[in-house]
Amino acid sequence: MLTLVLLLSALLLDRLLGEPPRWHPLVGFGALVDAAERRFHRDDRRRGAWLVAMLVIPFVLLALLVSLPPWGWVAELVLLYLAIGWRSLGEHGKGIADALTQGHLDQARERVAFLVSRDTQTLDAQDISKATVESVLENGNDALFAPVFWFLVAGAPGVVAYRLVNTLDAMWGYRTDRYGRFGWAAARLDDVMNWIPARLTALAYALAGHTRVALDCWRRQGRVWKSPNAGPVMAAGAGALGIRLGGAAVYHGRLEARPDLGAGQAARPEDIRRALDLIRRGMGIWLACFMLLILIGHLLPITGVSE
């Protein structure tokens, strides 16, 4: 029951306060990662894996230490709140949707560049809508569902480990000459930690939208995407919304062929808000399931005694 209270409280804090405007621990961690890369970078998998361990393990142990009784619940609440980026994701998405609705295409391009790694200078309204919905759906897992999952599984150490690994993947997990080998460990560890949460997220999206279409898109399209976890999440999300995502996009000046995701019409500006609403309903499903599990856990001992 305490876990549920902490989870609901952290979600409420995120909705009320959003991310701290200054001194966010992940910003400091990002600066530490940059410094470690400049000092120790080498085109070597073992060097990258060693750095990942050195950057993550001490903070996980610290999270374990501060989460011990009697005041450990305070640390757990704060760490989960800091790991969640639900309100921030919504603000970014709504800002892009508003810019598109008002016809401010250049502003929309500038804003979407904060969410995606593709080239945005020449995107039209439809491409911006598609890129934003893709990012919203994928980051719904990374910034909300996966941190919640790891908190439920392993408490504060779990959520800290996930958020740091996810940050390392965002900074090093690229298939480029500089990061192809050096960032291999960060990318693979992020894949492992996201495998179960991503599929539970995809299931939540499916249940919160056009379920049959979403499950079919997940089955057919999710496995052909370049990311083993983003594919199921975005395919199920696109199917749940009844829109088409994916397709070719320009990255670092090169046109990359990408599979189609979802089914139906092309993404439009209004679909950005629909994607954010899908995340909200999906989290509602997660919370309802967790509460049901708690209720079953309380009823089973009573049933056992009466028998």
Number of strands: 5
> What is the global morphology?
globular
Strand percentage lies at under 5%
H/E element order: HHHHHHHHHHEEEEEH
Average pLDDT metric: 94
First CA to last CA: what distance? 25 Å
Fraction of residues in helices? Answer: over 70%
Q: Give the domain tally.
A: 1
Largest sheet: 3 strands, mixed
Determine the structural class based on helices, strands and strand pairing: mainly alpha
Low-confidence stretches: none
DSSP helix count? 11
Q: How many whole angstroms does the radius of gyration measure?
A: 20 Å
Strand order of the largest sheet: 4-1-5
Keywords:
307 residues; mainly alpha; two-stranded antiparallel ribbon; 11 helices; 73% helix; 5% strand; globular
Care to describe what's here?
40% of the residues are buried. The protein has helices at 2-17, 25-40, 45-66, 72-83, 86-101, 105-112, 125-172, 184-208, 211-221, 230-241, 269-306; strands at 243-246, 249-251, 254-256, 260-262, 265-266. β2 and β3 (254-256) form a beta hairpin. The model has no long low-confidence stretch (mean pLDDT 94). It contains eleven helices and five strands; from the N terminus they run ααααααααααβββββα. It is 73% helix and 5% strand. It is mainly α and 307 residues long. The strands form two sheets. A three-stranded mixed beta sheet has the order 4-1-5. Strands 2-3 form a two-stranded antiparallel sheet. The chain has one domain (2-306).
